[in-house]
Structures are given as structure tokens and as C-alpha cells.
Amino acid sequence: MKKSINIANRLDEVNGIVAACNGSTLPFEQAYELARFYYDFQDTNALIADAEVMAGEDLSGLREIAISLKAETTTLLNNIGRLDGIDFRGIANAHSRHYHAIFQKASDELNPYWKRYCELNHRLDYLPLGSKEYAEAEKECDAAKAEHDRRQTDVRRIYAEYEHENRHAGDVFSLKASHLYALATKLNGIAGSIINDLDRMEKGEGASNI
């Protein structure tokens, strides 16, 4: 299955996370790994299409993948109850709030630099153009603006990081244990059908629709 050749490895990672779960929460990184597995492989029609292509190219490889998929999904189905108490929405919200707080702090710390620049710029309006005082104030104003702009660049970078992590949080926010259960059930059935079809092909009975 070309598109999903690494599905068994991904399932092994998922099973490791689920097996170690014991409580009502998970580290965000682990919750995100579960969410990404669900979203990456929820299109089971793509898996079936890959299997049909591989059936004409590499039957032994297809059987190996199907057996691994069957085993890994069986393990997941046996352990999925460990996720029943996990508050994915709470995990997502806490992650998003953490990065927003970092951005908000940086934004608040930038304000005094903008205020200082505005004060110096306003002062120029009351100084004689071309005077020594004006030249000195203008130099100080330019330095204040440069310092503000440098710090603003950092704030923009922090905001971009917040947006990135907020999108990740959105994936976790939408996840439910029941989603993973439903997907694992479908994948388990697909793997079983592939194995049965391969067995029939080997016996010369022909294959059914996977």
C-alpha cells in the first residue's frame, strides 16, 4: 500500500502511547500524535485503493502489511478504553492558552518601546528644525524606532509560532476516543479482508472486493 506503507509503524507508536496512558490527561505531543494518525489515515478508501494496486505488484508485501495492520489494530482495540477519560479538548485549550500567553507577554513588553518612540517623535515637533537639539533628538528617535522594530520582529515570530501551535491544538480539540475506535475497527476489517482475499487467491478461488 504505497500511500500508507508506514501505517503499521504509525500504529505501533499510537499503541505505545495508548498502552502507557493511565489517567485523565496526556502530554500534548502524544495527544497530537494520536490526532495526526486519525487525520492521516481516516480516508480508508485510499488504503483500499493502495491495496488493490499492490495486489497486482507485490502480494507477499501486501500480506505482510495486512498482517501487521491486523495485529496492531487488534492491540489498539483491546486498549482503546484507556483513552475514555482523556479530555482532548482540555489538552488542546491548555496548549493554545500557553502559547497565547507567551505571545501576549511579548506584545505587552513591546508597548513601552512604541510609547518611547512616539514620545521622542512628538518632541521633534517642538524643536527648531536644523538645530543641534533637533539633530540629537532625531538621532535618539531613530534609535528608539530601530529598537522597537527589532523587538516587533520577535513578537511577530512569536505570534507565528502561536498560530502554528493553535492549528495543532485544533486537531487535538476535535479528536475523540470514539473516532480512533471507529477507525481502528475499519482498518482491522480491511486488513482481515485483504488476508482472506490473498488466501483465496493462493487457493485459486479468486478474490472478493477488498
Summarize the structure.
This protein is mostly helical and 210 residues long.
What can you see in these coordinates?
With 210 residues, the chain is mainly α. Helices cover 79% and strands 0% of the residues. It contains seven helices and no strands. Helix 1 runs antiparallel to helix 2 and helix 1 runs parallel beside helix 4. It is elongated, with a radius of gyration of 28 Å. The chain starts with 6 loop residues before the first helix and ends in an 8-residue tail after the last helix. The model has no long low-confidence stretch (mean pLDDT 92).
Topology:
Elements (H helix, E strand, L loop, with lengths): L6 H14 L7 H14 L2 H12 L3 H21 L8 H37 L7 H42 L3 H26 L8
Helix pairs in contact: 1-2, 1-4, 2-6, 4-7, 5-6
Q: Count of DSSP E strands? A: 0
Main beta sheet, described?
Answer: none
The N- and C-terminal alpha carbons lie at a distance of: 13 Å
What is the residue-mean pLDDT, rounded to a whole number? 92
Q: Could you tell me the strand content as a percent range?
A: under 5%
Pick out the low-confidence regions.
none
Order of helices and strands: HHHHHHH
Task: List key phrases describing it.
210 residues, 79% helix
